[in-house]
Amino acid sequence: MKSLIPYFREFLCAPIVILFLELLPVYDASYHEYGEALSKCILFFEGQRSGYLPQDQRMSWRGNSGLGDGWMVNTDLTGGYYDAGDNIKFGFPMAFTTTMLAWSVIEFGQYMPPSELGNTLFAIKWSTDYLLKTVSQPNRIFVQVGDPILDHDCWERPEDMDTARTVYTVDAPNPASDVAAETAAALAASFLAFRSSDPGYAETLLRTATRVFDFADNYRGAYSDNANIRDGVCPYYCDFDGYQDELLWGAAWLRRASQGDSYLGYIQNNGKTLGADDNINEFGWDNKHAGLNVLVSKEVLDGSVYSLQSYKTSADSFMCTLIPESSYSHIEYTPGGLMYKPGGSNLQHVTTITFLLLVYANYLEKSSQTVNCGSITVGPVMLRGIAKRQVDYILGDNPKGMSYMVGYSNYFPQRVHHRGSSLPSIKDHPQFIACKEGSIYFNSTNPNPNVLVGAVVGGPGEDDGYDDDRGEFRQSEPTTYINAPFVGVLSYFAANPS
């Protein structure tokens, strides 16, 4: 029988939990339709699709695009996702998006209604089918399709694209450890997501993940250090934080997928040399440290692999940084109660951190454990309370009373920084709109004609302010990697709304 002491300990800390949650502002804490938000969060990915759209495409204002992708290198590179409001296929964030969608299914799929689980698996497969194409040739990875400088000089629909669809390639012995290892992670995680529903496809994913990880590990270095592709991938998705975390992350996912001892040995033996002990409290497309620690800590909390204790210690430390009352508190909150990290699109941090809060809460609950954060003890109840407050803020419980998910509630961003959404649909305006002809739509103060349902935008600033301005891309641009972890988060709260 598991000890009840951790639960009593958390119960004794309940006044602190209540105090913390009461200290955060409440703005008309309305009841949220988390199930509706989940459906829309998944639907967003249909607006980001590249390639031939399927018959059952629900985002009906979109059309086929990027149908010649890969012809320059005699390879079919159609499909995949545009990462944000432009028309480029960046492999690094796309692979991370895929990993997070798959992790959402692994941890929270049991909470998803069957129809939404099916939609999420379809969203994953839209990406994994493309990722398999990018690594179809030995010791070569296609890391990007589209010239971002030319693309960003235009404001045009994906269906009208006439800028260069340059293919950026890395061949061994040139390194691409970050993109290759993240791709391996995506394929390994997706193996777990598809294992029961499509075992044949799942095996292909795992077999490919193993091969791609070897490429990442054998030729170590950051992909953006390659002179022949640097100008195309930087500064957009440059590897700013090094490739080492991706190697550990990829190995950790292969360990989870295969249960292979060689991958266990890899994360045990390489942790120190690859910087696992740096204890960097970040998680996103470029920095996997906090997510890696949470992922690996499951093996410790399950009571099996104590040689990985350092990862759990780092995961505990990360959780403590999120709690204002903790003596280890380290994160900023806006006056309205939203987690805030300076620089760039803020909600990308909020959705990934909220995801980790819920995953770790589940791991702690299953093992009847808590986290010692100095003066306070933290357990699943507190972690979920913090997560819920972030979700409710995004959905409208904030100083502006605005939902930062497009199409959810009656008040949401109307001028999203997104080409396809802001230009007339090809269904309504079949005539070609050239590169510079789209500028009048970009500069217009009118709402976008096509609602990009489910898109979570970059979000408000540190003062909770949001101007709903298409030109303020840090606030008004949605990305796939903001939405992907939010799928898992909303799945949990749709089933556990209180």
From TrEMBL:
It catalyses: Endohydrolysis of (1->4)-beta-D-glucosidic linkages in cellulose, lichenin and cereal beta-D-glucans. Residues 1-29 form the signal peptide. Residues 34-490 form the Glycoside hydrolase family domain. Its EC number is 3.2.1.4. Keywords: Carbohydrate metabolism, Cellulose degradation, Glycosidase, Hydrolase, Polysaccharide degradation, Signal. InterPro entries: 6-hairpin_glycosidase_sf, 6hp_glycosidase-like_sf, Glyco_hydro_9, Glyco_hydro_9_Asp/Glu_AS, Glyco_hydro_9_His_AS. The keyword Signal applies. One of its GO terms (molecular function) is cellulase activity. One of its GO terms (biological process) is cellulose catabolic process. The active site is at H417, D468, E477. The keyword Ubl conjugation does not apply. PROSITE patterns: GH9_2 (PS00592), GH9_3 (PS00698). Belongs to the glycosyl hydrolase 9 (cellulase E) family. PANTHER family: ENDO-1,4-BETA-GLUCANASE (PTHR22298). This is Endoglucanase.
